[in-house]
Description:
Elements: H1 3-6, E1 8-16, E2 19-24, E3 28-33, E4 47-53, E5 56-61, H2 64-67, E6 77-85, E7 88-96, E8 101-106, E9 118-124, E10 127-132, H3 134-154
Amino acid sequence: MSAADRSAKSFVLAQLGDRRFALPADTIVELAPSLPLHHFPHTSPLLVGVIVRRARIVPVFDAASVLVGKRSSAHHFYLVARRDVGKASELSAIPVDAECELTSAELLPSEAGRPRYVRGRIAVGEELIDVLDFESLVSEAAAAEQGGNRQEGAG
């Protein structure tokens, strides 16, 4: 990790279950209030539906199922973030349990053995909080789901 990566940057802290996680603030578009979640048949891992926000269809991914081990039950807010998919950029959202907060901190290196979607950690008071790479989180979950489906079909 270079010195430029470690300099103080802004992060949005989000509550999922009983844990807090951070996302780089420059990827966050907005914190949206609870909106109707539209469901439809699909096979995409983590995708729980879509919301319509500012005349755009925004896919909603339940990151809590990966990060805290259980699906998010209440969708009080949606944290809308920009994801780079190939050469294009799209909006995606994750349900969060409470209002988010903005903080500035130095990005610390991730510990060995942490998942690839953990970009690093930040210290907020006495707490060390994982900084997530949202695109890696969604991609890794998709790969794990496809691997599980292949194993189930192989037996």
